[in-house]
Design brief:
There is one protein chain. By secondary structure, the protein is an alpha/beta fold. It contains 18 helices and 14 strands. The strands form two sheets. Strands 6-7-8-9-10-11-12-13 form an eight-stranded mixed β-barrel, surrounded by four helices. A five-stranded mixed sheet has the order 2-3-1-4-5, sandwiched between helices. Helix 1 runs antiparallel to helix 6 and helix 11 packs parallel to helix 13 (352-365). The two termini are 50 Å apart. 39% of the residues are buried.
Length: 497
C-alpha cells in the first residue's frame, strides 16, 4: 500500500484539475483491482464514472421523452477526515503514525465492494468513490458503518512503539447527480458535508442540495446584516450546583429568530455560517459584551451569577483574544471570575500549542476556563496537566441515557453494556476532574433519576431540560428569583453506587 502519496494536494479542486486529462479514459484501464490508489488515479476513475453516468442520463432522457427526473442509479463520493492525526504523530512518531494510517486503510477496505476505490488526501483524509451507493439511505448506512469501524481503538502489537490509538472520523457524502454532475462539484459538496459533520455527534452528514447551498449564501448575507443591526439574541440556560443546591451559573447560547413567520436558524448553523464568512470575531464580541453587560446589571440587582461563553476554534488561536476579553471586563466592570470561557476538546487540539498559550493568557486575565464535551475528544493526561482549567463538562452523549437502566428499578451494575459503560465513563471523568482539582458539569440531564445518579457519582454541577431550559435574558431574572435555591429539584437520593 502506498500510504504516503508523493504528491500531496493542497485542495480537492487542484487534484480534480490535475486529473482532467484522464476523464475520457476507460475505467478498467486506469487502475488495478486494489481498492486503494493515488489521487490522480482515483480522480480519473471518478471522471470516467461521471462520463458514463451522464451518458446514461442522456440515454434515459431520449427513451423517456426527455424526463430526467428518474435517472439511472447514482453513486456516492465520500470525504473522510481522520481527526487528531497530528497528536498520533506526536505520540507515536512518523513510523507509528503510518502504521495507524495503514490500519485505518485496511479497515475501510474491508467494508468496500469490488468497484469501490479510495485515495489518501494528505495525511489525515480519505476520498472514496462508491459506485453502488445510489441513495441517501444507503449513503447514511455506509457512513455510519465507516464511523463505527474507523473509531474503534487500535491495540495491534504491530504498531511501532504505540500501544493505543484512536481517531474520531468525520464523514461527508455527496451523491451524483443530486449534489453535482462533475468531479469538482461532488468533491466540494462532500468536503462541505465533512466539515459540517465535525460539529455533530453522529460524525457523518449528507451534502446539502443546490437549493440549500443557495439558502446558505443568503443566510450568510443575512447574518452579517443581523449582526450589524444587533438582531441576534443571547439566551441563558441555568446550571444547578449539586453542592450548594443553588442555580449559581448559566451558559450563554446564541439564538437567531429572524423575522416573523420565518423559521429560526439552528444555533449550530449560525456558528457554521459565522466561521465560513469570517464573522466569528464579530459574533463572539457581540455575545461577550451582551453577557458582561447583563452580568453587571445582575450584580447591581443582587444576583451573583457566573456566565459561560463558548469560544470557537478561530477565536482560540486569536492572539488578540485575551486583551479583548480584558477590555470588555473593564468596560462593564465585571470581576473576571464571573466569566467562564468554554472550549471543546476538538477545538483545543486543532492547534494545541497555540491554544495552550491563549488559555494561559486568559487565565492571567482572571477568567475561569472550562473544557467542554470532555470524553469525546483526544486530550491526554499530559495535555490535561498543562491546561489551566477550572472545570470539565461531561458530554451529554454519556449523560442522557444514565437513567434509562433505573426506570425499571434495575441495578446499574447489572444493566446492559451501553448503560454500564456510560456509568463507568462518567464516574471516571468525575474522578479525573477531582484528582486535578477541577469542577465537573454534566450536560443533558433530562430526568430526576439521572440527576440523582450524578449526585451519587460525585458530579458537582448539572445542566439540562429537567432543571431548566434555555430562556431569553429578559425572562431569566424572574425565573432565577423564583428558583435560585433549587429546593424543588434535588430530592433525597435513593440511588447507591
Amino acid at each position: 500500500m502506498n500510504l504516503w502519496p508523493k504528491a500531496k494536494r493542497a485542495t480537492a479542486g487542484h487534484a480534480v484539475r490535475a486529473a482532467s486529462a484522464f476523464a475520457s479514459a476507460p475505467v478498467a484501464a486506469v487502475f488495478d483491482e486494489a481498492h486503494q490508489c493515488d489521487v490522480d488515479t482515483l480522480l480519473a476513475y471518478l471522471n470516467a464514472l461521471i462520463a458514463k453516468r451522464c451518458a446514461d442520463l442522456l440515454q434515459t432522457g431520449v427513451t423517456t421523452g426527455g424526463d430526467l427526473q428518474a435517472p439511472p442509479s447514482g453513486f456516492g463520493v465520500f470525504m473522510i477526515e481522520l481527526r487528531r492525526s497530528d497528536r498520533t504523530r506526536a505520540l507515536a512518531g512518523v513510523e507509528g503514525a503510518r502504521d495507524v494510517l495503514a490500519t485505518l486503510c485496511r479497515r475501510a477496505a474491508e467494508l468496500l465492494r469490488s468497484g469501490d476505490r479510495f485515495a489518501l488526501i494528505g495525511v489525515e483524509g480519505l476520498l472514496l468513490v462508491l459506485p453502488e451507493v445510489d441513495s441517501a439511505g444507503r449513503a447514511l448506512l455506509v457512513a455510519a458503518r465507516l464511523v463505527q469501524i474507523l473509531q474503534e481503538p487500535m491495540r495491534e502489537g504491530g504498531l511501532r512503539g504505540y500501544v493505543h490509538a484512536r481517531v474520531r472520523p468525520a464523514i461527508g457524502c455527496a451523491l451524483f447527480p443530486a449534489h453535482g454532475v462533475d468531479a469538482e462539484s461532488l468533491i466540494a459538496a462532500a468536503d462541505r458535508a465533512c466539515h459540517a459533520a465535525c460539529a455533530i455527534e453522529e460524525g457523518y452528514r449528507i451534502a446539502e442540495s443546490g437549493a440549500e447551498v443557495h439558502d446558505d449564501a443568503n443566510l450568510s448575507s443575512d447574518l452579517e446584516a443581523a449582526l450589524q443591526a444587533n438582531q441576534l439574541e443571547v439566551w441563558l440556560q441555568p446550571q444547578y450546583n449539586l453542592r450548594t443546591q443553588r442555580f449559581d451559573a448559566a451558559e450563554a447560547l446564541i439564538r437567531w429568530s429572524r423575522s416573523e413567520g420565518v423559521a429560526p436558524v439552528e444555533p449550530i448553523k449560525v456558528i457554521e455560517l459565522a466561521e465560513a464568512q469570517g464573522l466569528m470575531p464579530t459574533l463572539t464580541l457581540f455575545v461577550l459584551n451582551t453577557v458582561l453587560r447583563q452580568s453587571a446589571a445582575f450584580s447591581q440587582r443582587g444576583i451573583d451569577l457566573r456566565i459561560a461563553v463558548n469560544l470557537s476554534a478561530s477565536m482560540l488561536t486569536d492572539v488578540n483574544l485575551p486583551r479583548t476579553v480584558q477590555q470588555a471586563l473593564e468596560l462593564w466592570g465585571v470581576a473576571p471570575d464571573r466569566l467562564t470561557l468554554e472550549v471543546t476538546e476538538n477545538t483545543l487540539m486543532q492547534d494545541i500549542e497555540g491554544s495552550l498559550a491563549t488559555l494561559h493568557a486568559l487565565k492571567r486575565v482572571g477568567t475561569r476556563l472550562s473544557l467542554d464535551d470532555f470524553g469525546t475528544g483526544y486530550s491526554s493526561f499530559a495535555y490535561l496537566r498543562r491546561m489551566p482549567l477550572d472545570e470539565l463538562k461531561i458530554d451529554q452523549l454519556f449523560v442522557r441515557n444514565l437513567g434509562a437502566a433505573h426506570h425499571d428499578g434495575s441495578d446499574p451494575r447489572t444493566s446492559d453494556g451501553k448503560h454500564d459503560s456510560d456509568m463507568r465513563i462518567v464516574r471516571s471523568i468525575v474522578d479525573i476532574a477531582h484528582n486535578f482539582d477541577l469542577q465537573t458539569v454534566a450536560e443533558g440531564v433530562e430526568d430526576e433519576v439521572t440527576l440523582e445518579l450524578l449526585g451519587a457519582l460525585g458530579c458537582d454541577v448539572i445542566q439540562g431540560y429537567f432543571t431548566a431550559r434555555p430562556m431569553p435574558i429578559g425572562a431569566f431574572e424572574a425565573w432565577w428569583r423564583e428558583h435560585a435555591t433549587g429546593s424543588g429539584y434535588l430530592m433525597p437520593s435513593s440511588v447507591t453506587m
